[in-house]
Specification:
5-stranded antiparallel sheet, extended, 5-stranded mixed sheet, alpha+beta
């Protein structure tokens, strides 16, 4: 509805908003220009003196273009209403000016002068919220509409100061300033619910976010913490904080959790200084919020609520907290107690009482308050939701004035409005039970009259009815119509001399009640002779008009009456047009009171009438428009094609295209169901009328007429309008009300959107052809202010409107200046009172009063009843007189002598009459016997059953216990003996799986596992026996031995640590799920969901069969029998207690009798009536017969047989019982007679003589004691009787409750029996499937046990094979360790170790086995030969140890070879066994798979049968007893007789399912959050895994680089850590040290020799140097000689010299090449030595091993080179 209204408003005021947008754009342009002029800063500041123009902003009326309708057609004159139901619709600007919202207007009301000023909505869509600045310098108007704005006005200039844009989409629901007024908070309504914080002076949004997905009622800043806000609304409260984040400031909200408290709408709250918040509730208590949880709920003492209804805290000052409530009370509470409140141990409530309270008034509902702007003022102005504005003084002093009601308005929708036909008076009524009269010219309210019911219709009587113009006809919601007479009480002073107050009063002239439901319309006939009233009870009543209104009659119409209109004077016939809300229109002829015949009812069944039922044609209109539009488009396209074809000259193509064209499908005709409601209508011509429809059919005015054929049922009629008129921009905005000006030149329409629309018309235009141009303006609220009432004043100078928003506006057609000049002398004339004004007529105040029709029917019924009673009494009187006469005649006849006495036959007048009467009597007796035959048979059978029942044991007899003082009684149940449980057939279906084979298999596997653990074919210690260690040639020192021991211990610890880590890693990797791992629970849940999706939830129901159902039935019967037996035992115990009580009472009565014998007669209190045991209380007494009783019965029987043989035994029993009762009475009388003489003994003795004073005193003392004893006995007896009666009443109520439960159990038994019969039909099919299933289960268990056993054996074999392989590797490692480093016999010993030889088995074998072994040995020999041949050498002789090889090492090699061969044989056998087990396991797995598939198929069949059984069971009818208030299946306002289509559902289950929907929604959101978190976590884990993998790779690279740097290659760190002390290495080290010492000594000797040789060399070198010098000088001389010689022999010696130089160079080159070769050989030798030293002993060098010193470079033979030159 909100969206529709919003859409209609936007369409209707499209042009208005267009112009408004242009105005705002102009202002924005000016605004941006002003900003550009301010400066070129990055963030421009708005100047403080910048204002907008109100004339350019406010919304204007829309006028049809080129219509010449003036824009100022209507001028707002006054607002008489107040939208008191709107939240916070009262603000204070100064000490005398109030503002509130009235539709599209903002009203500024002066409290003192009551003058009003107005501001129109700028958007035309209405106003959402208002607020005032804390400094009262500005006020804010937050609007409604599409993208509404917030406009800040300056006060008192009322100039627009700032415009805030873009805060919400449709509507603002609340706005509020912060404490210092620097910021503004706004909250939007649906659909965005945006919370926005504004820097309003700069028109900028500071922060914005979505508040919540529900309606928000209020937002406010904390006055103590500027960064805190609070919002509240529908079922929530939310706490906000302005926080600074790394992305900037943001709003962070925290929703309040109600916890165990019922969620409530929160209308108001107060922020406390310490951050807590105190809020109200719907039920009247206060909630103290600490954080986002409720700390405590505050209520009054004894659990009373703080207020009755909704409560709102509104002020905190001076340690006092004030609250208001819908109960009209203001209460003051102690703030300290509230702030420190804590819940008690019983719950979360804190009880306290208010310090003060102020009751504003009766029928007051306070919804908001504002404080006076004067400093230190205690005056507050309060908004009353019941239509008032109050002034309150909350100082709570003795001198405080009482609350003052400043203004009073209507509350709620305006139900009726009409104007006087003679003066400027207007009357209105609403559901607030009031009728108000206004002077709209003087802009004041004249008088108000209140009633017990709300008003629903109003009509001002025309002058033809009342010349004074003071008669009002008002209809009320209970069907009463009241005639109210308006008069001026001031003029009574001249008549009566009284001086009343006020200018006008309403006097009740006549009330009557023609209807049983609300009166919706009243109308006077055109001549003023008849009044018609219509009601929601689908009736129209007619009255004659006069001094007293007399009823004529009523008619029924097809639907609730919407409006009534009499035909105008222009029509020849005087008819009434009745418009019904259901779309029916009825026209009836005006009834003639003179021709109406008196009847028993007011119903006018013969009144001529015509009916019309509207049938929708809107879809057909749209269809025709679409057809015409498509046709025009086709014609246009066809013309274009023709022109194109003419140009291209292709006529054939045109024909082909025409053939290809297909006929387009037209839209279907839509008829709304239910039909559209009828809004209003009026006559056009006789028999013709216009209708305005709502809903789907809105947007048109339909011209209709009554058809000629009126024979059809009005409910089944379907009449279409014969014409229609489209209404512009009214597709979703129907016309709600229509009226004409007095000259019918203006058509005024009230729209659903709250706007007024005026059409100028031509005179006499009944067909409304001139209804084209119009003028429209939004007046009332666009969402809920539907304009249902619009009237023109008697002189057409004023237009008055009233809407559903409670607002009433008056408009003038003339400007205010001209209106004031033309009407300055006119005033509203109030009629004068009548001279004969008497006492006011008594009103109809009883809500259950009869209507006129019901009263007449009741009167007729009462009269008929009186007539019938009168006739019956007369006939009875005559009959009694005749009976007396006849008895007198009979007596006289008896007194006559016998011979003249008349016989009875002679007294009969006619024998035939007597015979006829006898025949009729016999016939009736036969009919009665026929009717009672079944009852007679039933009673006889019941008697037989009762007799049989009384013959049963005591437990089968019915015992009835009767109360003593009351009429309550309780009886036992009749319990038949239950059959022995062992005799019942109980076959329990054994569905357990056979477990014998499986248990046996498990035991067998356990034995085998234990045997396998204890057995081992080869001892590991024996295989890994320590190899033979050669005799050490070098003895190690103690330090070396200690170092070896410590190294071995360290290696062992490292090995243990590494093994532990390996085990931990193995466990971790074993627990690590695979990449495609899925949780089994999730897999099962997904599988179940896939199986059951689209169907019901596949709950695994327990399979039921007939035997189980029989057991359930027997169990229920036993339970019922047990409950009944328990009650019977309690009743019998109560009967026994009554027996004891009766005996005790008789004893006490005897004691009381003795006491009263000694008391005076006047002191005796009447004794209580002693109870006796009734026969039904002791039924067993009837069966207890003494011998004398039996003898008496026998004698009576014999005597009776003698007298009357035809009598039965029943009469004998009765006679016997009578005689026994008479004997008991005689015995009681005799016992009483025995005790009677004792009663007067003491009295006689006391009366005979005078007593002394002492005797008198003793007698008084005795009398006092006896009186006390008498009272005590009576009280004890009365107490005992009351206690017994109370116990019986309690037991009676418990038995009634059990009866109710037993009846339900009986119904359950019937259902179980039907289910058992149904299950028996499936028993045979299900039994066969169960047998097959048990066979499959047995076979599956056997196969599964065998498969598990086989898998266990295979796993054991695999573990044995792995162990053997590890032993083989260990054996090979032991052999390699025994060889040592650089063993020259390594190759030979390896061949010996790996050689395969023929082995002789020790077991006894058959011949075949020997042949096989021979074949195997031959194969082994062949393999050995192949091995030897592969080695490429001669055959290895392993019988002789080669020379140089240690015998111990050779022998150890042979032993290790034997062990290796043993391990290989064992490994071959284990592999063969494992292969056989693998094949067997595969075959068993296939068998198990097939058996499982068979079992699954059988189980599916059983599930299908079980589902079919459950479906059949669910189709059974089950009896469910219900009370009437539990049935909510209503059709047409009543409970149907057939409830087969109804659904029986537990209300708690329905509530649980509704709650479950919310839970599922919450779970869905929770699962979405979990999914989102899981995805985020998954993404994070993937990212972490990648980063961790990269980190691991980087660390591995660093580790490898460090190992290469430290060790020169990659090494096994674990092997390095487990490296123990190597004795061989230590020996080599020791040997190296010894050799190093010897070599050092030898080197020292050689150094001495080298030194000597160096000295000799030095001497030789010195000598050679001298020789060289001499040789040099000789060479120089030789050179000079050769130069001389060369000059002479130049040509001859050149060739020889060149040859010499070439030969010298070649020798030098050869020497250099030899030097390079020698150096490369030395480098290679050094590399080998380095490698050898690094790999010495087969182990890595320890980290602290020192490097060898670098080799000195080789010397170059320079001398030879030089010599060579």
């Amino acid at each position: 509805m909100l969206g529709e209204n919003g859409a209609s408003v936007s369409e209707q005021t499209e042009s208005t908003r267009t112009s408004l947008q242009e105005n705002i754009e102009e202002c924005d342009t000016k605004h941006s220009a002003m900003q550009q002029e301010a400066g070129s800063q990055s963030k421009k500041q708005l100047p403080a003196d910048m204002y907008y123009k109100y004339e350019e902003l406010h919304s204007r009326p829309y006028i049809t273009p080129d219509s010449e309708i003036p824009e100022n057609l209507l001028h707002l004159s006054h607002s008489f209403g107040y939208d008191c139901g709107r939240r916070a619709n009262l603000k204070l600007l100064d000490d005398r000016t109030l503002i509130f919202i009235a539709g599209n207007m903002l009203v500024l009301l002066d409290v003192n002068t009551k003058e009003q000023r107005y501001l129109r909505s700028c958007s035309g869509g209405g106003i959402g919220a208002i607020t005032a600045h804390p400094g009262k310098e500005y006020f804010v108007v937050a609007e409604k509409g599409k993208q509404p704005n917030i406009i800040v006005y300056e006060y008192p200039s009322l100039r627009p100061y700032r415009i805030l844009r873009g805060g919400t989409e449709r509507e603002y629901s609340f706005v509020e300033f912060n404490h210092n007024g620097s910021m503004l908070a706004s909250v939007g309504s649906a659909p965005d619910y945006t919370l926005t914080l504004w820097d309003w002076r700069q028109e900028e949004v500071m922060l914005s976010c979505k508040a919540i997905s529900q309606e928000v009622y209020r937002v406010s800043f904390s006055p103590y913490n500027p960064g805190m806000l609070t919002t509240s609304g529908f079922g929530h409260i939310k706490f906000w904080k302005m926080a600074n984040t790394f992305t900037g400031p943001k709003l962070q909200g925290l929703i309040g959790h109600f916890g165990k408290t019922v969620p409530t709408d929160i209308e108001g709250y107060v922020e406390l200084p310490d951050g807590k918040v105190l809020s109200g509730t719907d039920w009247g208590n206060l909630l103290l919020w600490d954080g986002n949880t409720i700390k405590v709920e505050i209520c009054r003492n004894d659990g009373r609520t703080c207020h009755a209804g909704t409560v709102q805290p509104f002020s905190l000052e001076d340690g006092q907290l004030m609250t208001i409530g819908f109960d009209g009370v203001v209460r003051v509470w102690d703030f300290e107690r509230i702030n420190t409140a804590d819940s008690n141990s019983d719950g979360s409530r804190f009880e306290m009482e208010p310090n003060n309270e102020l009751v504003v008034g009766r029928n007051v509902c306070l919804s908001s308050v504002v404080r006076s702007s004067l400093p230190h003022s205690f005056v507050w102005f309060a908004q009353d939701s019941n239509g008032a504005i109050w002034k309150l003084d909350l100082s709570f002093t003795n001198t405080s004035p009482d609350p003052e009601c400043l203004f009073s308005f209507h509350a709620g929708m305006i139900q009726g409005l009409d104007v006087s036909k003679k003066s400027y008076l207007m009357a209105t009524t609403t559901l607030d039970c009031s009728v108000k009269v206004f002077d709209f010219l003087g802009k004041r309210e004249l008088t108000t009259r209140r009633f017990n019911q709300g008003g629903t219709a109003l009509c001002w009587a025309p002058p033809v009815v009342n010349q004074s113009g003071g008669l009002l006809v008002t209809g009320f919601e209970n069907g009463v119509v009241r005639l109210l007479e308006l008069y001026n009480p001031q003029r009574l002073q001249t008549i009566t001399g009284q001086s009343p107050e006020g200018d006008a009063e309403l006097r009740l002239r006549q009330p009557f009640k023609p209807h049983d439901a609300a009166v919706t319309a009243v109308a006077y006939e055109r001549n003023g002779e008849i009044l018609a009233t219509g009601s929601a009870d689908c009736t129209v009543f007619f009255f004659t008009v006069g001094e007293n209104y007399n009823p004529i009659g009523f008619i029924h119409v097809p639907g609730p009456v919407q409006a009534l209109e009499w035909s105008p004077h222009s029509h020849s016939d005087n008819n009434l047009l009745i418009l019904c809300q259901s779309g029916h229109v009825v026209e009836v002829r005006s009834p003639d009171p003179a021709t109406q015949k008196p009847t028993n009812t007011f119903h006018l069944s013969e009144l001529p009438r015509r009916s019309f039922k509207f049938k929708s044609i809107k879809s057909r209109i749209k269809r025709e428009e679409d057809t015409a539009r498509n046709k025009a488009i086709k014609e246009k396209k066809k013309k274009v094609k023709e022109e194109w074809l003419k140009d291209t000259k292709q006529p054939d193509a045109e024909q082909e295209e025409e053939k290809e064209e297909e006929k387009e499908e037209l839209p279907i005709i839509y008829i709304p169901d239910p039909p559209s409601p009828l809004c209003c209508g009026f006559y056009s011509q006789p028999g013709h009328f216009w209708l305005s429809m709502g809903g789907f059919d809105s947007g048109f005015l339909y011209h209709c007429k009554f058809s000629e054929n009126q024979d059809e049922d009005p409910e089944q009629r379907q009449d279409e309008p014969f014409s229609f008129l489209p209404v512009h921009n009214a597709e979703d905005d129907p016309i709600c009300s229509i009226t004409f000006s007095s000259n019918r030149q203006l058509l005024l329409c009230g729209m659903n959107s709250g706007s007024i629309r005026i059409y100028p018309l031509q005179p006499g235009d009944h067909s409304l052809t001139s209804m084209q141009a119009y003028w429209t303006l939004s007046i009332h609220d666009n969402q809920y202010g539907h304009l249902r009432h619009i009237r023109c004043s008697h002189d057409d100078l004023f237009v008055l409107t009233a809407g559903d928003d409670g607002n009433i506006f008056s408009f003038s057609l003339l400007p205010p200046e001209e209106m004031q000049q033309s009407l300055q002398r006119n005033r509203a004339k109030i009629p004068s009172p009548k001279i004969t004004l008497g006492n006011e007529t008594e009103d109809i105040e009883d809500p259950a009063a009869y209507s006129l029709e019901k009263a007449k029917q009741k009167l007729q019924n009462d009269q008929l009843q009186q007539e019938v009673e009168l006739k019956v009494s007369e006939k009875q009187k005559n009959l009694s007189e005749l009976q007396k006469k006849f008895k007198k005649v009979l007596n006289n006849n008896q007194n006559l002598p016998e011979h003249i006495r008349l016989k009875p036959e002679e007294l009969q007048l006619d024998q035939r009459c007597y015979k006829q009467a006898e025949r009729l009597k016999a016939q009736r007796v036969m009919e009665v016997r026929k009717h009672l035959a079944w009852e007679q048979e039933r009673c006889s059978i019941a008697l037989k059953k009762l007799q049989d029942w009384f013959r049963d044991s005591l437990g089968g007899k019915m015992v009835t216990v009767v109360a003593i003082q009351t009429s309550h009684r309780v009886s036992t149940y009749h319990l038949p003996e239950l059959a022995e449980l062992s005799a019942r057939v109980r076959h329990r279906s054994t569905t357990r799986e056979p477990a014998g084979d499986r248990d046996a298999a498990v035991d067998c596997r356990k034995v085998r596992a234990q045997t396998a653990k204890g057995s081992s074919k080869i001892d590991e210690e024996e295989v890994l026996r320590h190899p033979v260690i050669r005799t050490a040639k070098i003895k190690l020192g103690d330090r070396q031995e200690e170092r070896l021991r410590k190294a071995a211990e360290k290696a062992e610890q490292a090995r243990a640590k590494i093994e532990k880590k390996k085990q931990e890693w193995a466990q971790i990797y074993a627990e690590k799920p695979s990449e495609d791992y899925e949780d089994p629970k999730d897999v099962e849940a997904i599988r179940e969901a896939k199986e059951n999706i689209g169907d019901y939830i596949g709950v695994k129901h327990r399979r039921v069969n007939a035997e189980m159902k029989r057991e359930e039935l027997i169990s229920l019967e036993e339970n019922m029998h047990e409950k009944q037996s328990e009650v019977n035992r309690r009743i019998v115990a109560l009967r026994d207690s009554k027996l004891g009580l009766v005996s005790w009472l008789h004893t006490r009565a005897q004691r009381l009798e003795k006491v009263q014998q000694r008391l005076a007669v006047h002191l005796r209190r009447p004794p209580p009536i002693l109870p006796n045991m009734l026969p039904e209380e002791v039924p067993e007494e009837k069966l207890r017969c003494s011998h004398s009783t039996l003898e008496r019965y026998r004698s009576l029987r014999e005597q009776r047989f003698k007298d009357l043989e035809q009598e039965g035994a029943a009469s004998l029993l009765e006679q016997l019982e009578k005689e026994m009762e008479e004997e008991k009475k005689e015995e009681e009388q005799r016992s009483d007679e025995k005790e009677t003489p004792r009663l007067s003994v003491s009295s006689v003795t006391n009366e005979g003589s005078e007593l002394s004073e002492l005797e008198e005193e003793l007698q008084k003392e005795e009398e006092i004691r006896l009186l006390h004893e008498q009272n005590t006995l009576l009280e004890e007896m009365e107490t005992a009787v009351c206690q017994f009666d109370a116990e019986l009443l309690l037991l009676c109520r418990q038995k009634l409750h059990l009866d109710w439960r037993l009846k339900l159990a009986d119904l359950r038994l019937v259902t179980l029996f039907q289910e058992m019969l149904l299950l028996k039909q499936f028993q045979r099919r299900e039994g066969g499937l169960h047998e097959k299933l048990n066979t499959c289960i047995t076979e599956e268990n056997s196969i599964t046990s065998k498969l598990e056993e086989c898998n266990e054996q295979l796993e054991m074999k695999r573990r044995d094979i792995a162990k053997l392989q590890e032993r083989e590797k260990a054996l090979t490692a032991a052999f390699q360790a025994s060889l040592g480093e650089n063993n020259k016999y390594e190759e030979f010993l390896t061949k010996v170790f790996k050689k395969k030889i023929k082995r002789v088995k020790m077991k006894e074998q058959t011949g075949n086995e020997e042949e096989d072994s021979d074949g195997d040995s031959e194969e082994d020999d062949d393999w050995d030969d192949d091995y030897d041949s592969e080695e490429g050498g001669a055959a290895v002789n392993d019988s002789i140890c080669p020379e140089g090889c240690e015998p111990e090492l050779f022998e150890n090699t042979l032993q290790l070879r034997e062990r290796r061969l043993d391990l290989e044989e064992l490994l071959t056998e284990e592999k063969k066994s494992a292969e056989a087990l693998k094949k067997e396991s595969d075959s068993l797995a296939k068998k198990e798979k097939s058996v499982k598939s068979s079992r699954a198929a059988l189980e599916d069949d059983l599930d299908l049968i079980n589902r079919e059984k459950l479906q059949k069971i669910s189709e059974l009818d089950v009896v469910v007893p219900l009370r009437l208030h539990q049935i909510e299946y209503v059709v047409n306002g009543s409970v149907p007789s057939d409830l087969s289509e109804a659904l029986v559902l537990d209300k708690s289950e329905l509530d649980r399912l509704k709650g479950r929907i919310q839970q599922l929604q919450g779970e869905k959101l929770y699962q979405r959050d979990l999914h989102r978190q899981a995805r985020q976590q998954h993404t994070k884990l993937i990212h972490d895994r990648r980063s961790m993998a990269a980190t691991i790779q980087t660390l591995e690279q660093q580790c490898n680089e460090l190992m290469r740097t430290k060790f020169g290659r990659l090494v096994d760190l674990e092997a390095l850590q487990m490296l123990s002390g190597n004795r061989r290495l230590e020996e080599l080290k020791q040997e190296k040290l010894l050799k190093e010492a010897a070599y050092a000594k030898e080197i020292k000797q050689w150094d001495a020799k080298v030194e000597e040789a160096r000295q000799a060399l030095m001497e030789v070198t010195t000598c050679n140097t001298e020789h060289l010098r001499s040789a040099t000088s000789l060479n120089e001389q030789k050179k000079d000689l050769q130069v001389k010689l060369s000059t002479s022999q130049k040509k001859m010696g050149r060739q020889q010299f060149q040859d010499y130089r070439r030969r010298t160079d070649q020798e030098a080159i050869q020497n250099l090449q030899d030097l390079v070769i020698r150096q490369s050989h030395q480098a290679e030798a050094l590399r080998r030595e380095i490698h050898l030293l690094s790999c010495k002993g087969g182990h890595m060098l320890p980290p602290d091993h020192t490097r060898l010193p670098p080799l000195s470079p080789l010397r170059t033979h320079i001398g030879s080179i030089n010599t060579g030159k």
